[in-house]
Amino acid sequence: MNSETKTGTHYSAGEFEAYFLGVMTEAAASLLQAVDPTLQPAAVPSGKIVVDSAGVVGFVGADIRGLFSFAMARTSADSSPWELHEDRLGELANQLAGRVKNLLGRVGVVYEVAPPVTLRGRQVSIVSGERLMRLLFNGPSVTYSVQVALEVLRPVELAPVDDEQLPASEGDLILF
């Protein structure tokens, strides 16, 4: 994990939000590069981001709770059926929640993930108070908006976790 970690100390809500954003940025960038190498990070405009559809996954733990949103606005160059995008968005939100969960689990932050929900409509926007963190990725036929609404419930202590206590890494095969 590239995000700088102060282990053994308690993070205030603001400090942990900054740390979380770094982890989320790393996870989202690697996920989207695997999906479409032409996608590039873009500046996030001020104000709300309006999209055509979104996949949403909630999460809750002892120290944090919130939701991940993976949303998309298509350009006229994209003529693929909506159903393909809806399934993809729910799965991308789920994968992002899992990647962030694995990265945070290495420093003792644990949360549970709800099943993904997909939203579609005209001018869909994710609104969740002041604590909405956003990333934007542009490609030739699509723009992805990655958002997380994070609520830090109490100061968060980051502590390294022994390798034996870590969950399986992404892509590992576990035989029972």
List the helices and strands and how they pair.
Elements: E1 10-11, H1 13-35, E2 40-42, E3 51-61, E4 64-74, H2 82-105, E5 111-113, E6 117-124, E7 132-138, E8 142-152, E9 156-157
Antiparallel strand pairs: 1-9, 2-7, 3-4, 3-5, 3-6, 4-8, 7-8
Helix pairs in contact: 1-2
Q: Describe the sheet with the most strands.
A: 7 strands, antiparallel
Q: Which structural class do you get from the secondary structure elements?
A: alpha+beta
Give the proportion of residues in helices: 25-40%
Number of strands: 9
**Average pLDDT across residues?**
81
Low-confidence stretches: none
Percent of sequence in beta strands: 25-35%
The CATH architecture is 3-Layer(aba) Sandwich
Shape label: globular
CATH names the topology as: Chemotaxis protein chec
The termini sit apart by: 29 Å
Number of helices: 2
**Fourth-tier CATH superfamily name:** CheC-like
Instruction: List SSEs in N-to-C order.
Output: EHEEEHEEEEE
Q: Radius of gyration, rounded?
A: 16 Å
What is the CATH class?
Alpha Beta
Number of domains: 1
